[in-house]
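Example record

The entry below shows one chain as it appears in the dataset: sequence first, then structure tokens.
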Amino acid sequence: KRTMQKLQADKTLNGVKVYLADFDFERKLKNEFGVERQSTLIVFRGQQEIARSLAVVDQEKLREFLLKGK
């Protein structure tokens, strides 16, 4: 969560929206997107899913992953 907050201040990610959902409480959302594990990241461009990843914690790898949504 802290890493995502830092990335939101990254100017190269301007225009990228980040939404965090609680895996244990957002059951409807989890089912809608087929999320089976915590730390699942999904990148959308518009309404189309373009990338999905599990348990990425390295800040630079997260930044590169999020840039796929631009």
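Notes for this example: The chain has a mean pLDDT of 89. The longest helix spans residues 59-67.
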